[in-house]
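Task 17 of the worksheet. Students: predict the tertiary structure of the chain below and write it out as structure tokens. Keep your answer in the requested format; marks are given for formatting as well as content.
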Amino acid sequence: MTRTTHFLYLHGFRSSPASAKARRMAQWVGDQRPDLRFECPQLPPSPREAMSLVHRLTQDWPAATMAVMGSSLGGFYATHVAQQRGCRAALLNPAVDPARDLAAYIGEQRCWQNPEERFFFRPEFVDELRALQVGALAHPERLMAVIAKGDELLDWHEMSARYAGCRIKLLEGSDHGLSDFDDHLPDLIDFLQL
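Model answer:
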């Protein structure tokens, strides 16, 4: 087994690198794998710009030993990255159709971790999300989805259907933010070969 050398964490909509899961992964990397190249960028509200940033950060990363983890909208982005690069990905309550879901959020938004931090979600961002939609997954065995039946924002049935060919850890309860994230860390670390 080849160990992962480069690791990317992608946060969700209205979230940031200050989210509980992003901070937990940064802490884990610092404690357990300080040799790992770790990136957890603040993603711009524009999906096109977000993917452009991800591309710039990872363009010289070796696909065979890179991994990506994404939560919610970050899970949608991580699916796109995994499809493009052929790398392993862990998806935490991944958004399946954010173009549909986020159309209702056009306008000024506040960051969950810092309500003082605001951004504007523009109508054209919905089309940018649509353009990032990927079809059938080329390598479903390289994807793992942690899906909570207790997710209050996204439909677990839809997530399970989208990632049907992948390794799925279906949780009976939990929530959208995966407040029990630490319970799943060993499985995620193992799957991502961290």
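Marker's comment: The chain has seven helices and eight strands. Residues 144 and 167 are 5 Å apart (CA to CA).
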